[in-house]
Amino acid sequence: MASRPLPLFQTAFRWVALLLIAGLVMVVPASRAAADLDEILQRQVLRVGLPSTESQPFLTTDSAGVLGGYEGELVRALAARLPVRLEIDRSAADADALVAAVRAGTVDVAFGQIADTLERARGVRFSRPYLHVREARVFDRMALARAGGEVPHLARQPLRVAVTAGSAFTESFRVAYPSAELVAFPGTTEALAEVAAGRVAVFVADEVSVARWWQTHPASAIRLETRVHRERDVSYAAAVHWRAERLQAWLDLFFDKCERDGTFAGLRERHLETESPKEEVR
C-alpha cells in the first residue's frame, strides 16, 4: 500500500525541526571535541598546556627549548611512555588559565602547579597527585611582634594577605580566614616586596617557591620570617577534560608507576631536596 504524502504543515514542521537540530549541533562548544586517549594515540601527538613563565624548580626551558625542572621532566617522561610527540602550548598565564584551556579542549592535558581544588574539579578531571607541597607563610616581623608573636592573634586582626595569581592556597586560606582580604600579585618577588614594605601582613605560598626566593634574598631575614605548616599542604595534579576518562585512568597508572619505580624520587632529588624552607617551625 502506497504511503500517503504528509500534509504541508507537517512537512514544514519537520524541516523546521531539522534546521533547529542542525543549529544546535553547530553551536556545541569546542570543549565537546576534547580528545581522549584513543584519539591521542591515533594522531601520535599529545597537546600539553604549560604556564607561559618559567618557574624554577618546577618548570624551565634550556637554550634548545628542552623542558626541565620537576614538571618539565615529568611531561617528557609521560610522552616517552605513551609514546607520542609533544605539542606544547604556553599561552596560559597561570593555573586558572590552564584549567580554562583544558575545558575549552585546546589542550589535552595541563601541568603547571595546578592544585586539585574542589572549585576547579567542577569543570575538569584531575589525575592522582604527582606532588604534595606544604603551605609556607612569610610574615612581616613587626606585624607578628604586634600580635605578640602568635599567628592566631594576628589572624584576629583585619588581615591583608598576599598571594600569587592563581595560587594553590587561595581556596584553603579563604576557608580558614573568611574575613581576610586576599591580594593577588604576579609573582613571589612582587608579593614579598609588599610584605617587606608593611602593606600586607603575610604572604602565603608553597614552601618550595618561598625557599627558592630566600636563596637569593637572605638579607630579608631582618624584616621577614617564614613559618611552614606541617599539617597543611596542597597537591599538584594533571588536569584533563571531563570527557577524557581513559586519559585520566592512564595518567593515574603512570603516576603510580612513577612512585614505585623511583621516577618521583629522582625528580625530588634533582629538583626539590635542595629547596628547604629557611625556617621550619610550627
Supply the key terms:
282 residues, alpha/beta, D-Maltodextrin-Binding Protein, domain 2, 5-stranded mixed β-sheet, disordered C terminus
Protein architecture, described:
With 282 residues, this protein is of the alpha/beta class. It has 2 domains: 32-130 and 237-271, Periplasmic binding protein-like II (D-Maltodextrin-Binding Protein, domain 2); 134-233, Periplasmic binding protein-like II (D-Maltodextrin-Binding Protein, domain 2, 3-Layer(aba) Sandwich), CATH 3.40.190. It has helices at 8-26, 37-43, 69-81, 95-104, 141-146, 151-155, 170-176, 188-196, 207-216, 245-261, 263-271; strands spanning 45-51, 60-61, 67-68, 85-92, 109-110, 125-126, 131-140, 160-164, 181-185, 202-206, 224-236, 239-240. Strands 4-1-5-12-6 form a 5-stranded mixed β-sheet, sandwiched between helices. Helix 3 packs antiparallel against helix 11. It is elongated, with a radius of gyration of 24 Å. Mean pLDDT is 82; it is low at 19-32 and 278-282.
List the helices and strands and how they pair.
Elements: H1 8-26, H2 37-43, E1 45-51, E2 60-61, E3 67-68, H3 69-81, E4 85-92, H4 95-104, E5 109-110, E6 125-126, E7 131-140, H5 141-146, H6 151-155, E8 160-164, H7 170-176, E9 181-185, H8 188-196, E10 202-206, H9 207-216, E11 224-236, E12 239-240, H10 245-261, H11 263-271
Parallel strand pairs: 1-4, 1-5, 8-9, 8-10
Antiparallel strand pairs: 2-3, 5-12, 6-12, 7-10, 7-11
Helix pairs in contact: 3-11
